């Protein structure tokens, strides 16, 4: 909201460039209605931002490196810090855990060893990469770090499958929307647990790609510097910030 603006603002000094930077979803970004016409650029996880900085991405390394799947001794993990019974992810978990054992860490579960999230999750075959809200391009570190960096197959709840496939291969994840019910998803995960060749197909993309998890905030500052240099004297103004971000 406007209370976060620099002292004395608005208006924006004419020689300054303002960037609206936000990596929360629209559900957790109140106060946008009064910010129209103030900022020159947007920077967020959305692909249509002026400065696009995703939570992570895949890239092709200069030389392929062999992928070694960690030893898997457990089935499904979920790490959650903000537990809200009204969130879709908690409601879905409640139904899924009736048919499948799920180890929960964080707010309502077991404690993680400090700095040990990736190491802990790497022992699991699957990770519930459930976002706290469902919006266009809102795919966070729950996928990139918690699942991919730990070499666990992500079971995702977020935007639609087609949105995920803009960023990652279709055979690299399991979407809850692929199944009519949590019970049938649980049945499929149990099937993969017993069928190693079918399970390993979810890692075929590793032969080509590596995972990059975006570093907060140094990469973001560098991206802004690049945008300022590239723009030169060409100035634009974001007229409808709220309507764009909430769309």
From TrEMBL:
List the pathway annotation: Protein modification; protein glycosylation
Q: What is this protein called?
A: Fucosyltransferase
Per the UniProt entry, the Enzyme Commission number(s) are 2.4.1.-
Q: Which organism is it from?
A: Ficedula albicollis
What role does it play? Catalyzes alpha(1->3) linkage of fucosyl moiety transferred from GDP-beta-L-fucose to N-acetyl glucosamine (GlcNAc) within type 2 lactosamine (LacNAc, Gal-beta(1->4)GlcNAc) glycan attached to N- or O-linked glycoproteins. Robustly fucosylates nonsialylated distal LacNAc unit of the polylactosamine chain to form Lewis X antigen (CD15), a glycan determinant known to mediate important cellular functions in development and immunity.
What range(s) does the Fucosyltransferase N-terminal domain occupy? Answer: 10-56
* Taxonomy, superkingdom: Eukaryota
Annotated Fucosyltransferase C-terminal domain ranges read: 70-244
Question: Which InterPro entries does this chain map to?
Answer: Glyco_tran_10_C, Glyco_tran_10_N, Glyco_trans_10, GT10-like_C_sf
Q: Which GO terms describe its cellular component?
A: cell periphery; cell surface; Golgi cisterna membrane; Golgi membrane; trans-Golgi network
| Keywords, ordered alphabetically | Glycoprotein, Glycosyltransferase, Golgi apparatus, Inflammatory response, Membrane, Signal-anchor, Transferase, Transmembrane, Transmembrane helix
Group of enzyme by EC: transferase
